[in-house]
Specification:
By secondary structure, the chain is α/β, with parallel strands linked by helices. It has helices at about 25-35, 50-60, 80-90, 105-110, 125-135, 145-150, 160-170, 175-185, 190-200, 205-215; strands at about 20-25, 45-50, 65-70, 95-100, 115-120, 140. Helix 3 (about 80-90) links the parallel strand 3 and strand 4 (about 95-100). About 40% of the residues are buried.
Length: about 230
């Protein structure tokens, strides 16, 4: 497990239960996590949702302190949902849940603002530990996620920004510039500029090349592609 210090976010010093929202498109997974968390007196599960669109639409209503967010969901990927939710409610602590341990994917999730990454095979008590850790303003990576990130230390390629990583994911799934612009609420011209910068940084000339890069580096894992 790797922990790095983040600025402590405001909280009520334990006077109120931590409000947790679970977002996973597998009902049995969501129900199992909820059953575990509801055994703790200091946690209040405010709801379970099955897709990223509902998470975005209902986050203000449900007002979670911590969101357990799956990456492999229909309609909107967990990465895109993370970015949009944090733009609207930056105090929300997002913990990514995934069965994928691709280092590129973990790094991308963290760069989008997620405060932690948990593989779905971690012991049940580790979910509670991760929630407590991010509520203290610290990042939490399970051991498998931490180990997967180590190979990235020697990568000298110019890194993509969070926005560029999001657009790469959208483009690699076959979406047009216009479709990406609508999904991210930005202009088509902005998408085109980001697309050019992505190709330059990665040394890739074609959209097919971007898709191939995304597949080889695990960027498409967890998006529903190839299910």
């Amino acid at each position: 497990m790797t922990q790095t210090t983040h600025p402590v976010l405001p909280q009520t010093a334990g006077l109120s239960p931590t409000r947790v929202l679970i977002v996973d498109d597998h009902p049995m997974v969501a129900a199992g996590i909820r059953a575990i968390l509801e055994t703790y007196d200091d946690i209040h599960v405010v709801g379970t949702l099955s897709n990223g669109r509902d998470a975005i639409d209902r986050v203000a209503e449900l007002d979670p302190d911590v969101m357990l967010l799956d990456l492999n969901m229909p309609q909107i990927s967990g990465l895109t949902a993370t970015e949009i939710i944090l733009e609207r409610r930056p105090d929300t602590r997002i913990l990514i849940l995934s069965m994928h341990d691709s280092p590129e994917y973990i790094s991308t999730a963290l760069s989008h603002g997620a405060m932690g990454y948990l593989l779905k095979d971690v012991p049940t008590e580790e979910v509670k530990l991760a929630i407590d850790t991010v509520m203290q303003g610290r990042r939490y990576l399970c051991t498998g996620a931490s180990e997967s990130l180590k190979p990235l230390a020697n990568d000298a390629r110019e890194p993509l920004t969070s926005r560029e990583q999001t657009i790469l994911l959208e483009l690699a799934q076959g979406r047009s510039n216009k479709e990406v612009a609508i999904a991210l609420d930005i202009s088509v011209r902005t998408v085109e500029t980001h697309r050019k910068n992505i190709k330059r940084k990665l040394g890739i000339a074609s959209t097919a090349g971007l898709t191939r890069y995304a597949m080889e580096h695990g960027v498409l894992q967890g998006t529903g592609q190839g299910r």
